[in-house]
Amino acid sequence: MRKMEKLNFDTVILGGGPAGLSAAIYSSRGAVSTAVVDINMFGGQPSNYLELENYPSYSMVGGYDLMEKFEEHADKFGVNKFPMQEIQKIDLKSKQIITNEYEFQAKTIIIATGAQPMKLGVKGEKEFVGRGVSYCAVCDGAFYKGKIVAVVGGGNAAVEEAMYLTKFADKVYVIHRRNELRADKIVQERAFKCEKLEFVWDTVVKEIQGENLVNNVVLENVKTQEITNLPVNGVFPYIGMSPNVELISGQLEQDSRGFIITDETMATSVEGVFAVGDVRKTPLRQVITAASDGAVGAVYAVKYLETVKETVKA
Fold first, then answer.
1. Which one of 136, 170, 255, 263 is the catalytic residue?
2. What percent of the chain has pLDDT above 70?
3. Contacts for 252 with CB less than 8 Å, ≥ 6 apart
4. Which one from 139, 170, 255, 263 is the annotated catalytic residue?
5. Mean pLDDT of all residues in 48-76
């Protein structure tokens, strides 16, 4: 059995998306030893976005390209990077993170694990993942060239991904449980002008059906309770996000949906532990707010380390 390598850092950041990499930049600039640990490659959710048009200084930029710039910036300050780690245990109180390769011991932890698309929770969803059910239009859109697909949701992500899918699909239905979209007005205006988009209002998905591949969704009108069938080749749910907190739930204060509660400095209910980006309770989840959270959290993590050092000296 291979002996696990033990590594000590002032700050360990869990997650290499915009919040985590921003935190890494500010932490390293604060002259503290910093490591970023992620279960995937760095970049987070934005790496899957084809284009971003609301990040300041870029009128339009590819999500992958932007996150590559984040990582290059972190490299400039000598951040220690540990991608593709299978995390086995996280103990926030003792500041210990154990992966399949390393045992990290930290003085502070910054949680930047992000969030993932929520599931519809209907029959057929799990069974058809990869065979007609997808949570990433950029990843899988090209498989639906000349086909008919449905996007479920009414926010920015749902509408923007629906428009992206029109590059491939002949028809894209947007199924929304309300009678109006939640997306930004500018996004709505573009969507309503798109001839390939058709909106199905006041409706929810009850079941996803198919044989080897998806071929139908069962719909229910929430006002009339009428049940209908909609023949489609693919279903893309975009109904919200849930936090990636599997290994830390119950160790700190969270809201009813599992998002981590922080104060304005990004401090959590556990001393020396901060949370930034989509994983925390916040009114807006965007690349720019995640990056901002990372900066704030890292600055106050550095201040915390300075306070601890002064206390030890005293």
1. 136
2. 97
3. 92, 260, 261, 268, 269, 270, 273, 275
4. 139
5. 90
Predicted local distance difference test score (pLDDT) of residue 313: 54
The CA–CA distances, whole Å, from 201 to 154, 174, 205, 230 equal 10, 8, 12, 13
* 89 C-beta neighbours (distance < 10 Å), count: 10
Distance between CA atoms of 216 and 197, rounded to whole angstroms? 18
In this structure, the dihedral spanned by the alpha carbons of residues 131, 135, 140 and 143, taken in order and rounded to 10 degrees, is 40
| Strand partners of residue 280 | 260
pLDDT given for residue 44 in this prediction? 92
Mean pLDDT value of segment 59-64: 90
CA distance 26 to 185: 34
pTM of the model: 0.83
Q: What is the mean pLDDT of residues 31-60?
A: 90
Residue 194 designated active-site: no
Residue 51 amino acid letter? E
Q: What is the pLDDT of residues 134-158, one digit of tens each?
A: 998 888 899 999 999 999 999 999 9
Whether 136 sits among the annotated catalytic residues: the reply is yes
Structure tokens that stand for 197 in this block? 């988009």
| Predicted confidence (pLDDT) at residue 312 exceeds the cutoff of 70 | no
State how far the Cα of 88 lies from the Cα of 128, in Å rounded to an integer.
28
Average pLDDT, integer, range 122-133 = 95
Cα 245 to Cα 254: distance, rounded to the nearest angstrom: 10
Structural domains present in the chain: 5-116+241-313 (3.50.50.60), 119-237 (3.50.50.60)
72, exposed or middle or buried, with CB in 10 Å at 0-12, 13-18, 19+? exposed
Does residue 243 sit in helix, strand or coil? strand
Asked if pLDDT for residue 314 goes beyond 50, the answer is: no
Q: Which two tokens stand for residue 217?
A: 């969704």
Q: Is 140 among the catalytic positions?
A: yes
Q: Which of 10, 140, 278, 293 is catalytic?
A: 140
